Amino acid sequence: MSQFWNAWNKRKDRLRNQKLEQHANKSMDSVKDSPVTSLLEDNIVLIEQQFGKSDDLVVRRFQISTGKEAAVIFLDGMVDRNVISDFVIRSLTTENVTYLSPASNELETTNQLRQIVRNILSGNSVLFIDGSTEVYLINSRGWDRRSVMEPQTESVVRGPRDGFTETLSVNAALIRFRLKDPNLRVKHLIVGQRTQTDVFVMHIDGVAHPPIVEEVIRRIENLNLDAILETGYIEQMIQDHRYSPFPQIQNTERPDKIVANLLEGKVAILVDGTPFVLIAPAVLSQFYQSPEDYYERFYIASLIRFIRVISILIALLLPSLYIAFSSFHPEMIPSRLVIAMAAGRSTVPFPSLVEAMFMEIAIEILREASVRLPGPIGPTIGIVGALVVGEAAVSAGLVSPVMVIIVAVTTIGSFASPSYSAAIAIRMLRFPVMFMAGLFGLYGIMLFIIVMLVHLSSIKSFGVPYLSPISPLNLMGMRDLFLRFPHHLMKLRPSMFRVHDRIRMREDDQS
Question: For 253-299, where are the E strands, in sequence order?
Fold first, then answer.
């Protein structure tokens, strides 16, 4: 039966891909890959036809020192006009300069129409000279860019304060600045049939496992989408298990975090237009680890990491444990606490499950509303709204005071996760485990945990088991799991990523 379903799914995927290929409107394919002519006016008309005489297409005509007519074509707002005026027009209109030298990375020549259109769309300018079939491609990109700032989603107490921006070249430079290794490799891909988005795939040659790198590149190259506007598009399309609530590819805004993961044999995926960079493969343990765990002394970092793990368990299980104990197992609660809980619930007309669901949904609504409100107002509304709603619900007898405390502790625990994607998964799974606790008590919670562990055991990220280094057991990887061992005791890289050079610290480097 399983073979039948596998064959059926493969047939569906094949038919879907064929349909996409037949109906996909590949915008760059509409541009003929043909050479341009030597006539200036014909070339200008040809470019204007390709862009539909768009109003932001600028054509600046001028005469070079030899008397020939020339024209620079670019898109307004995407170029540095000073480069065009000083480097191109002023250079060619002087008596001593009759041509531009292409012996630089800033200048190339071509006669292919598709490459010319591609460069204009990328923010470059192109120079046509009457009587010549060679067209100059000039690197004149100059749109406004956001400066390097501290990431707001991954702030640390101790560590670097710079973060990625929306510019691909700047992000690559931030990584190169920290990782001065000639073995750092960058693979340039263009993804998105209409957006033609630039993508960098980075890894360290000799450390990363080549099949993993090749698989990452293969999956990205096979993407058949009109647009890639953010790394989330790529993350959702290339992960192994698309319907799992757990993230299988990590994202970050921190260059130091990317460098640390590259040194462990992982692959980084940078996308132009977004400050979030992807890390693949990813395992569950790295989603509750923070870069500053390695900047502090090992016992301090181990304590903080242990607190994070406890906070995640509280965020997932605390409301369901309250429901199970109060509804099915009151004999497991101390007598005085049972009496206090019963007194608090004496006016509540709903069972514990409905009470908990009501409060959790109210908190989630407040949390989402505070995110969407303007910056100065959002945190205030979130705090004041939670206090007002909780106090009003207790006064009205809709919920018990203990339930308000549990929901508050649960919400605070969910903020302790360094990864937003992992925290969202925990918040989502909280509701089904509450439902199971309301139906079967502690047995329902245990059944949910067993199903979740079976699911986690079946997940792989680019061939790496998601529960590594716990399953399969990897003793070297366990040194950086719940506790962080001292650096001198982590001389080898974890083998779960199949790294080639496992030695992280040489014997003669130890103090």
Answer: 267-271, 277-280
